[in-house]
Design goal:
By secondary structure, the protein is mainly alpha-helical. It has helices at 6-13, 17-25, 45-58, 62-66, 79-108, 118-129; strands at 3-5, 33-35, 38-42. The model has no long low-confidence stretch (mean pLDDT 86).
């Protein structure tokens, strides 16, 4: 395996060098050393970064993603955790589908105003009762 410098890893992984440094600080990746002032990484870090990106895209936290790696650095993915996340995504997809359909209806509704549209009123009532979920904000820090 060949060592890559931080700029090459950033380019290949499509993430800024600051994200790589952040992931290293969090223990998600490790450099193999330095050449001058530049961090060096084993080329296997690219697969690890791909798993991190996939996990973040699916909505896993960095702490959850950290648990997806065995002490030797290889993947150790809990299948039950994957199934639970898939269930969460299914629920969110259903919620978003209802929200999309309600917004499309409200946009085309023949009622004189949105306040008089029964579908829009139900959407407002759902939002007021907390039944419409607000997307969670991601933790601060680079993705």
């Amino acid at each position: 395996m060949t060592d890559l410098d931080i700029a090459e890893v950033a380019r290949r992984a499509g993430v800024p060098a600051s994200t790589l440094r952040f992931y290293e600080e969090k223990g998600l990746i490790a450099s193999t050393g330095r050449r001058g002032l530049r961090r060096q990484y084993d080329s296997s870090v690219l697969e690890r970064l791909a798993l991190i990106v996939l996990g973040r895209t699916a909505g896993f936290s960095l702490d959850e993603i950290a648990r997806m790696f065995a002490p030797d650095g290889g993947p150790r993915i809990d299948r039950e955790m994957l199934a639970a996340k898939a269930d969460e995504l299914d629920a969110r997809i259903r919620e978003l589908g209802v929200l999309r359909d309600s917004l499309r209806h409200a946009a085309a509704c023949p009622a004189p105003s949105h306040a008089q549209c029964p579908t829009f009123r139900r959407l407002l009532d759902a939002a007021a009762s907390g039944a419409v979920a607000v997307p969670r904000k991601r933790a601060p820090g680079p993705r």
